[in-house]
Design a protein that fits this description.
Blueprint (H helix, E strand, L loop, with lengths): L4 E2 L3 E4 L2 E10 L3 E10 L5 E3 L7 H9 L9 E3 L11 H7 L4 E4 L1 H7 L10 E3 L5 E3 L4 E5 L11 E4 L4 E3 L20 H15 L8 H14 L3 E3 L6 E2 L2 H8 L13 H12 L2
Parallel strand pairs: 5-6, 6-7, 7-8, 12-13
Antiparallel strand pairs: 1-3, 2-3, 3-4, 4-5, 9-10, 10-11, 11-12, 13-14
Bound molecules: fe (ii) ion (2 copies).
Amino acid sequence: MDKPTMFEPYEAAPDIDVVPCYFSIPILGLLPINAFVLKAAEPVLVDTGFALLSDEFLPQLASVIDPEDLRWLWLTHVDPDHTGSLHRLLEAAPNLRVITTFLSLGKLSLFGPLPLDRVYLLNPGQSMGVGDRTLTAVKPPAFDAPETTGFYDPKSGAFFSADSFGALMAEPLEEAAEIGAEDLRDGLITWATVDAPWLHSIDPAKFAKTLNLVHDMAPQIILSSHLPAADGMKDDLLQLLAQVPTADHFVGPDQPMLEGLLRQLAAG
Ligand SMILES: [Fe+2]
Ligand SMILES: [Fe+2]
């Protein structure tokens, strides 16, 4: 896959659709970038894909829900792979309000401020109703931006975990269970060392306590922004993430490697 590509939405649970795209990272592999539609009584979109694919993202989203019907946008954090269609959606969906944190709001004010009457601030541990269920904001165990909040939906049993539990992959799939065990281990641990290198300075015993919070939440399905839907895989994913503090550090290519790659490309 030589350019970012949108894929058809798929159902992760009876009331949850995934709107996926894939982005190929040189040397590392394929990274899924998911948005989600939670079909609550007050429908919630989770994140908005990335800007390069916005022209394709909006029709794919419209194939699972009329954007005008969206009541909430849960913005996990403001990295560019999560905010791509944010402002276009605010225009297209006049009833949409953005659930996010004070830090998200502050960072957005530097490149795309949100109107304050379109915002609903929710901190980890706080809850809010969306008609037929109450969502609780959760700080995921791994993240690359301080504003990150995921959430737990007790009605579907889904934990929307933002960047946490993401994995680099070899090919697009709709279920994390279809990834081979070795590929999932390598892809998840490598992604976590790239996305959250601070995990290397965490005491593994303390990190285990953080992971236990997810264990005790007991989600039936984990919906990461960067992994296909992971149904019934909580224990597997937690066991992999627990290995990250002691895993090899990720070091990107340096200039001699880049020049070698360019020579290879020039030679065809
Ligand atoms: Fe991120
Ligand atoms: Fe991300």
